[in-house]
Structure formats: structure tokens, C-alpha cells
Amino acid sequence: MSLASVDPLPSEAEAAPARAAPGLPRPALALLSGVLLVLAVAPFVLVFVISFGQNEDGAAWHWALVLENYQRFFVGLDYPDTFSTLYLERLWNSFLYSVLGALIAVALAFPFAYALTRRSRATQTLWLVLLLSALSLSEVFVVMGWDILLSNKSGLPMVFRETGLTQWLKDVGAFPILREWGLATPRNVRFKPSVFATLVSLTYIVWPYAVILLYAPLSRLDRSQIEAARTMGAGPFTVVRTVVVPAVRLPLIGATLLLFVYLLGVLVSVTVFAAPPEHTLTVSIADAVRGSALNAPFGAAQSVVLLVVASVFLLASLWLTRRAEATR
Amino acid sequence: MTARGLGSLWMAFCGLVLIGPIAVVSAAALNGGRTMAFPPEDPTLARFGDFFLHEPVWVRALSHSVTIAVGSALIATLIAWPVAYQLWRRESALSRALASLAALPFALPPIVFGVGLGFLWAFTGALGSVWAGVLSHAMLFAALPLTTISIGLQAIDRAHLEAAATMGASEATAFRTIVLPQTLPYTLSGFLFALILSFNEFVVIFFVSAASYATVTLQIFNSLRNGFTPTMAVAAILFIVVSLVVFGLIGRFGNLPRLMGADDSR
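^ inputs. structure came back:
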């Protein structure tokens, strides 16, 4: 509020408090708060509370305040007799897949997004339509596509065999390495199930998202700095390295964090492309709550762990965005 | 090769990889048998008839998908409007808190929200009802119209509002004559974003439908163990075409670069 608007006619503001407070009337605000508390907050509260509940035989459970579900998650049910890290491994897998997928997607999306912002407005709109369509495409369809592309009979392995690439790989001695990585059978290359196939699918899912996230900061970039660097004789790659990347450093990190959180929730790619030892927390949550395991409190406890990890990274991303906006 | 040429080459390559899986799935819909062979064996268009007309599983699933997408997008927009308006009119702790709450479900992993909604609907006895699915998606995607409407509201010249107030217009009148018309394209964009994402979503619906009904994407997810079939590939074609048409319309009649955060002044 400026100084000039403080002094004159303070009595008028007191006389008409309703006009001094624009926006929704109180009952509407109360209703809105109620709706949001029930629909947006209550589910998370229930997950948290039920994670301390106790499972009964036959898919039932009752309210309780036990740490048994968390014990099972972190050290195993029979601790201290035995020590099980099964679910910690699941969490580690979630973390690893998400970190790698996010990093690869951002690395591949950055040059694309930069090139996109330098095209005409009409070209940008066309690409954005395609990107948004790919972005919103359900994970089941993405997995369906890569399932065919990586299948032994009609996908890349067939192409490898038919073009003689398989034979060439055998001739140059690269085959034993591929077999060691689980990417080949004695006869041909094989991509499913593998960490590679999972990562391809994960990267594909978040790549359009990465472009969209980087598109805004890159298109708001101060063009005069780039022009100045160019005039002084810097090549286009030097400009990207010394001007563009430092300018969007925070959005780059922020985008990686957001994609990481997004990938934590991915379910189908891992179910279809990863071997069971490489499954993630989302798979066992689905299994516990709606699948064969039927242990809702344990599913809730796993959800809480996932939620905590996601929240930490989400807050970090928010903090970075704030800082980026403050320094702009 | 110039840097711009390299840029174009990279964009073309990315475009190809982006379209690759979609193109392969689309071709797989032509298969005569039950396998997803590529190139398609024994090509036929019969799977389209199966999906849209003959197989009750898919016809029912599609009608659930449409009901939930349209219903939830409408309710998401209705939830988002007052939140965005309050935040714009009055920058207070309460309005900021409401906006954060409305955006929360979209920001966190959907599987956790789905598990929680499953509990919520189980307690209220609505688990497995279609309207619970509609409300679940509405809350999940309210963040999208919230964002687009906020962008639209920021574009309104506040001098117009002050002029209206000076001339004696009430807040309701100003809303009807100035705010609503100017933000209509943004409201529509937000509605369509929510619609498309709901159409494609299945994790939350998996938890709240409790196996009593299925949407198209959930039906595919449920059949994962038996493998994909060409009829499911028909669904993929339908879904990608709907997305392209809707986003194409937003791009044609709205301002996609601005919605995605590009600065108009440069």
C-alpha cells in the first residue's frame, strides 16, 4: 500500500468493510474450504492414519496405533530374528529409475526446447499440440507401443537380425557384454524384460513434460544477452554453454526434480518391462491395496514413505522456482 | 552444418521417436488375429467395429470413460474458478492456502491419492460408484483449470475493474461483464486439459472403482496379464486422435505458447 492511500478518509474504509474486502462472500469461502478439505486433504490424512492400522486375515483391518507396518517396511516383520530389506530395495528401485529417467529426459529435452523457442510462433504452436498430446497419452498406450517396438518377433530385435546387425555384434565380440547386461540371448539381442526397456519407457513418458517445463524459462530468456555474445564473436555452442545454461540453471534443476516426483508414481512401465527383482514401490502398493497381497494398512504405510520422498523433492523444486523468480 | 540446422535435425529426430510408438500401435490395430504383430498380419478393419459396437466390455468402458472425463472436467472447473478468483481478488493467507490445497493432489504421486480416495469412498459407502470416480478425477485435475484461469485473470487490466467500480457496478456485475468474458478462453482450455487427462488416467480409477466398473484405460491395465490385443490398439488410436483434435483446437483458437508460459512481449 502506498503512503498516499493510507491517510485520506480512513473513516470510509471503516464504514464499509464489505467493500474493502473484495472476493467471495464468507459462506462461499466456507463451502469451498469444506469441499477441498474433504476431497483433497482427507484422502492423504486417511492414508497416514491407516498406515498405523492392523491387518486381519481375509483383507480386513482395524484401527490401531501400531508400528508393525513400518517395521515390516524398514527391517522386516521377523526383525530382529531376520533382517529383510525387500521393501527398502523397492524404494531404492523407485528412486533409481526416477532419477535416471528424469536426468535423461531433461538432457534430451533441453536442446529440443531451446531449438523450439527459436522457431516461429506458428511452428511452436504445432509442436506444442504434438507435445501435449504425447504428454497426456495414457501410460498404458506408451507401454503398448514400446512393447511392440522392443518385442522379439516384430520389434528392434527383428530389425537387428534382418539387417545383419546381430551378426556384426557377434563378429566384433560385443555380444558377451550385451548378454552380461541381460540384453541378449545366445541367438539374438533381447530387450524385454530389462532395466533398459523400463528406462526407455520412463524417459519417453516424461520427455514431453520436460520440454514443456523448459519451454517457459527458455522463451523468456533475455535475447539481448545472446545477441551481445554473438556480436562479440562467440559461436552458438559457446553461447548456449556460457549464457543460456547459466541463465536457466535453476529451472533445469527444478524440472528434473518435478519429473523425478512424477516418475515415482509410474506403475505400468515397471510392471511390464522390469523383472520382478527390479520392481518399484508403486507395484507393491497396488499389490497390497487392491492386488493379491490384500493388506491395506501396509499399502498405506508404503504410500506414506513414497509421499515423504515425493514431498521432500517437491518442496526442493518449489524453493528453487521461487529463487529463480526472485533472481529474474 | 549450422547450429540452426543441427537444431532442426535434433527436433526431427525427437519428433520421429515421439511418433514411433504411436504409429506402431496404430498399425497394430489392423491385425486380423489376436497378436500385436508389426507389420500387421492379415489386415482388417474389423477391430474398429469390435471396439465401438460389438464387444460390450469396450462399449461399456468407453461410455464410462466419457462420463467420467466430461463430468470430472466440469466439476474441476467449478472447483477451480472460485479458488482462482479468490486468489486474484484478494492475496491473503487463506486464498493462498486454498490454491495450494486445490493443486496438491495433482502435484503428488497419483497412486497415493488413489489409495487415500479408496479409503475415503469406502467409509462413505461410495466405493465403486461412478460418481465417486467423477469427484476423484475432478479433485485430481482441478489444478489444471486453476492454472489456466489464473493465467487468464492476470491478463485482465485492473483499470477496467476500477472504472466499473467507480461507475457503481457491484462485484457481481463486474464479474459478469468484465472478468467472465475475458477469461472464457482460459476457462475452456482448463476444462479441456482436465478432460483429456481424465480420459487417459487409470491409476486413481483403479483404486476408486473397486472392480465394479472400468474405463477404457483401466480395462487395458486390468488385461495386462493376458497381453495387449489389436482391439486395445483401436482404443489407442481413438485416444491420440481425441488429444490431437482438442489440443489442436486450443492451439488454433487459444494462445498455447502463452498458456505454456512463453512471454508475449518478446
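The radius of gyration of chain A is 26 Å. DSSP finds 17 helices and two strands in chain A.
thumbs up if we can close this ticket
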